[in-house]
Amino acid sequence: MNIANRLFAQKSYQFREAFISLVKKNFGGGFEPIDFAADLDPEARLELLLAGFPPHWAERYAATSPRVKEAFLFSHEGATAEALTCLDDVEPGDRNDLYYFERGSLLARSGETDAAFADLELAVTINPDLEFAWEAWVDLELATGAEDQARQRLAAMLDSGNAVAFCHARLAALEAQAGDAESALHHGLSAVRQGDSSPATVSLCAVLLERAGRDAEAETYEARVAALSPSSTAPRRSASRSGSS
Asked: What is d(CA 237, CA 211) in angstroms, rounded to the nearest whole number?
């Protein structure tokens, strides 16, 4: 952001005025509303999407076959059927770990869970360091009620140092659901320390810190939630307290 002078925002997304003012004040720039699907050509849309990826993965996606890149764009626009059609056209020799990750994720979105699991397993077999696929696998297990398997996989991933922030974040949510506030807070804070800045994780930490009587830290995390959530409000301390038992 220290070299940016403008932010592009999807026209249909409603940003809070406080967030827009914060951007203008701290970075001297404003928002330019655009329709990413209609106003930009495919190459520009791909560049914008990959700007949020770690450099190594952005380079790999940029180097994939044209049909995989087309499927990637369709997927991010919610056009699942079109994305799967693109992937069906990919030559067998071009079907690498990213291909199976993308297809597995799309199949999961379509409700084809068995096929999705098979593709995600192929992705991590080809490339055990493909964190995206491990994360998608765990989330699919959780979505299909296989919590025990997901917990085991998360523990194994932590042991191997794979997607550490993601693992702690998912375990924080699971422990919170199970009523183990101490363990949930441990994993939540660990996730944040490892780089997880998602509003869900930071908000959970804020609530758990307040319940633990760590009010000053809770206020700090609540402020972070407000900064991270441009279209929503931070959790109210009175609401979080009234929701505790």
From this structure: 10
